[in-house]
Amino acid sequence: MPAIDDIKSSWADEVELDQGELPAPSEIIENGHKIVTEYKYNNDDKKIKVVRTYKITKRAVPKVIAERKTWAKFGDSEHDKPGPNSHTTMVAEDVYMQFLSSKEEEKANDNILDQIKNIGKCRICSGEHWSAHCPFKGTVMDTSKLMESKPAVPAAVPAETSKSGKYIPPFLKDSQKGGTGMRGRDDTAAIRISNLSESITESDLEELVKKIGQHSKMYLARDKNTGLCKGFAYVHFKQRKDAAAAIEILNGHGYDHLILNVEWSKPQNN
Amino acid sequence: MKPLMLQGHERSITQIKYNRDGDLLFSASKDQKPNVWYSLNGERLGTYNGHNGAVWCVDVDWTSTKLITGSGDMTTKLWDVQHGVPLASIKTASSVRTCNFSYSGNQAAYSTDRAMGQNCEIFIIDVRTVDASLSHQDSTLRIPVLQSKVTAMQWGTLDETIITGHENGQITLWDLRTGKEINAVNDHTSQINDMQLSKDGTMFVTASKDTTAKLFDSDSLMCLKTYKTERPVNSASVSPILDHVVLGGGQDAMEVTTTSARAGKFDSLFFHLIYEEEFARLKGHFGPINSLCFHPDGRSYATGGEDGFVRVQAFDNSYFEYVFE
């Protein structure tokens, strides 16, 4: 019965072992190229052949440089052969300079502006006419003026923080509550948009509200698994009058074959 | 052109410098052996063995015969460039942060750190008389720096002045005949990491931790231009042939592990010298760039990084054909 020790290695390895020592490295110089061939073992103990081809070029240089070229190597390179030592000198992958063309950037900006213009066409009342001709055009200003003259709408709009995507550490939440109270916070300018289509994205939403006023943040509810919109979103405007205008304009507005429902963001039921 | 990658150091590169003709490239690193390379093919000519600490600075005189290095082992050494043997080793009271040969190569300056109860000091030595017996008492001039320590240094015009950049962002011009301060400016708000003269020496570009690089007039220390980035700038160099400035930098070494190389923070940034606008960037290192410089012919440049590699990159035609609009 053969002992396990007898089975030393597979026949493939033995063939390798039979060949013993590595062949000596060679250097051939032909046609202005130096070809260096080396043999070594790689990580899997397989013999590999490394062939490096160097191009030999001649350059006319000032005398001092030519003289320095003949200097003997010293220090840790003392035993290096003439020419680059592959241990210390490597040729890296080619990298290309990336030019930042200001022209392209400007073009890109123009495109974005065009898009906004196109959206503006039917944004206000979803009619198929230019926004300049929209019968509801004046209402933005009117409503915002109305909002200012009206007594403050019962605010009591609580923190949206837990719903908005950003994580806010508990101690910050507390300081907000303690510091500013319930009113006069950003959340008072928050609106809830519902009956959104599944396919809506953040950028669509942004385009939708951009016209009305500056917003500080927005949150589009998405299904955890599918990543599709769950049908509602929150937008925090910087100014309360913009939020009011958004409700005025967007509530009942047709978007992607659905009629949007826009209202003030309600307090969360704790 | 494919870049050459020079792997001669075991630790991060602290400073790299070309000699005047541009055929040799000197690199110093936090390991103890400064290296010298042929810049054309990346062949290593030798190493200067003898320091026992991190080597912070390196400079070569215009004849490429003498090399000066300053180290954390509290010595500054002068070397024979050709043979790699030390000519002199000067003991200091603390580690040597900067060292420079004067334009003539007759004098050299080095500065020491404020550490271990020692003040920061600038020393001027005459290197013509240098031999193994030279010690720190033999300096021709000693300037104690009582404010913030010197972190970068250059010789001014006609070897009559030196310009120092400080840890607090101050830039000071010193008169070497009197050893007194002539002028000081505070355009930078944080540490000056590097200062490099333009080809004719009339201007110099600074690299600061405050994320900007600035161009100064060498005589009046007037700030001429500011190049703004979003990262600390470790090194900056002015092209000798074109109106370009290249900046290299990245975060502090301690913050690097939190950054992907893909974020582009380790690229070299090319700015237009006059319009102060970035027009190109070039990838390479996978750590911050600690030192970089243009080849004296302006057709290639070299960078030394925290990753321990020195990269020599020749410019493609696209760089020379690029027209700034």
Automatic annotation (TrEMBL), chain A:
Residues 189-267 form the RRM domain. The lineage of its organism: Eukaryota, Metazoa, Ecdysozoa, Arthropoda, Hexapoda. Gene3D superfamilies: 3.30.70.330. RNA-binding component of the eukaryotic translation initiation factor 3 (eIF-3) complex, which is involved in protein synthesis of a specialized repertoire of mRNAs and, together with other initiation factors, stimulates binding of mRNA and methionyl-tRNAi to the 40S ribosome. The eIF-3 complex specifically targets and initiates translation of a subset of mRNAs involved in cell proliferation. This subunit can bind 18S rRNA. It comes from Hermetia illucens. Component of the eukaryotic translation initiation factor 3 (eIF-3) complex. Belongs to the eIF-3 subunit G family. InterPro entries: eIF3_g, eIF3g_N, eIF3G_RRM, Nucleotide-bd_a/b_plait_sf, RBD_domain_sf, RRM_dom. The keyword DNA damage does not apply. Keywords: Cytoplasm, Initiation factor, Protein biosynthesis, RNA-binding. This is Eukaryotic translation initiation factor 3 subunit G. GO terms for molecular function: RNA binding; translation initiation factor activity.
Automatic annotation (TrEMBL), chain B:
One of its GO terms (biological process) is formation of cytoplasmic translation initiation complex. WD repeats lie at residues 6-47, 48-89, 143-184, 185-226, 282-312. SMART domains: WD40. GO terms for cellular component: eukaryotic 43S preinitiation complex; eukaryotic 48S preinitiation complex; eukaryotic translation initiation factor 3 complex, eIF3m. Signal peptide: none annotated. It is found in: Cytoplasm. HAMAP family: eIF3i. Component of the eukaryotic translation initiation factor 3 (eIF-3) complex. This is Eukaryotic translation initiation factor 3 subunit I. It comes from Hermetia illucens (Black soldier fly).
